[in-house]
Amino acid sequence: MSVATPPAPLEGEIQVTLAAGGTGHYRIHSTRPLLAQRLLAGCTPQTAATRIGLAYTLCGSAQRAACEAATAAALGEPQTPTHTCLRILAELAREHVWQLLAADGSKAPEPTPLIRLRQAAGDAGQLAEALSEILNDSLLGEPARGWLTHDAEDLVRWAKAGKTRPARALAQYLSEPLPATVQIPLLPPLEQWTQEDIERLAAQALAAPAFCQRPLWRGTPAETGTVARHTDDRRLSVWLRMRGRDPAVRLLARLVELARLPVWLRGEGPPVLKSWSLGEGSGVAGVETARGLLLHIVRLHDGRVVDYRILAPTEWNFHPEGPLAEAMQALIWDDAALPDRVERLARSLDPCVAFRVEIAQHA
Q1: What is the structure's pLDDT at 164?
Q2: 307-311, long-range: CB within 8 Å, 24+ apart, which pairs?
């Protein structure tokens, strides 16, 4: 008999169902609806951007920027405005700070750092300064520049000292048994995408809308997020070899990205917004968000939306055969703490909708 659960929210959710009795069977299911086509078909680009901004409460700036850039590319007018990139980076910073302040789960995060970031969001210099102070005072316990020089062993000592919430959360992850090594490929960061890759993915999404619910990268599921963006970091590389792609490594990658962000805000970072014109009124735009790569694909006719697809990070990371599924395969299924372990794995992939773990007789 299944555990009684409340109805799924209107925006959908991720459901992870574990079979009772330690059988090792599970099911990962998303009830998130495909809204883009229904919401935007027949709209002008301007109306589409407005609707997107209102419809998505999380990563709203990234969603709107992707819509504006995709429709501009479809019209043959690709552009990357500086103020748009600043909005994307400001939103990314807020998302990371919120997640890191809540990392150890001890109590509700203090809202003051988020308020400071919002107040500084319109100026790159002020935002970089505010973020540097938050990193020093609340997240790292030291200046970001110095923290970024620590090697892998230094970071273990930093975590065990437990002076900040992220440090305590990282120490907790390091004390737990290692989950399975995730072999699923990482989705490339935005700067590595080629025109050929984009055209292939767009063709699949436009031909079959359901592809957006279970996307594949070159025929296989993939993981997107901060780890994919920072494989060049030497500390992260060491931890990946030692631990695989586990919650500790994902938390470290989030910290690394946030610590680098003040420099990015001064114009020295990788692109966070990119668009491609596909000809015949079609365009694609990608935005790097806190959760991973967001892609919008649009086809226009006579200045109005005919087809619209969104490939969001959650659909990559919670694919039924994706990184969460692969990590779950090595868990100890007769462990009473199994639901908590699954939940921590899911949280490390940061879904953009609600998720729940339930136990049922059959999964």
Answers
A1: 96
A2: 307/37, 307/41, 307/206, 308/36, 308/37, 308/39, 308/40, 308/41, 308/48, 309/36, 309/37, 309/202, 309/205, 309/206, 309/209, 309/212, 310/36, 310/63, 310/66, 310/212, 311/201, 311/205, 311/212, 311/215
